[in-house]
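input
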Amino acid sequence: MNETKQAMKSAFTLTIPIMCGYLFLGAGFGVLLAKSGYPFYWATFSAMTVYSGSMQYVEVDLLRGAFDLLTAVIMTVAVNVRHVFYGLSLIDKYKDLGAYKLYCIFGLTDETYSLMCMKTPEYIRNKNKFYFFITLFDHLYWITGCTLGAVIGQYIDFNAKGIDFVMTALFFVIFIEQWESTKVHIPALIGVFGSLLCLVLFRIFVQGGSQFFLIPAMAIVFLSLTLGKKPIERRLSR
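output
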């Protein structure tokens, strides 16, 4: 098996759980956009260019009213600022991607980031193609889900209430796979307890704090992993 086929097959197998989540959640967005009066190809175009699940759901509300560029920019930054931390933690992994780099940066979603953080299988001969195909497959799943949802939304009623839980379930599956794939659980525990700490503190001291805890939590996790990088790496190498 050549490098391209090997990378493609391995990436597809790894992204199957994300496919299930993206098809359903993307369909929810497509239905909402169709019910707002937009033809299905708007959902396709949005999935191809915006490619941000949470922001695309916000996008539906922005498109329903008079367009305000400043509000759109502020909302986009607020919703997606967590990707700054994602990018910082992947600098070493992405630095040698070459022609794939720009697309992999553009296609870095929460779920794709989770897979990128997993240990790359030793049998993968070309890691750059492996990372590229993970990003590409996830993007294609999202485009497909959004498009199908928009087409369905034009012809039948669809209750999208509660569909966001699909992504919650997907995160649990990815977390469990990562937990079982390594004997050292320090990074996972830092992520869990750092997030819980910020959630509790913000809910106690900040009105509506549960909406704002994510960015400080990401900062705590990032700093903790950065400062503890060498001890963690020593534990992983044992």
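quick obs: The mean pLDDT is 84.
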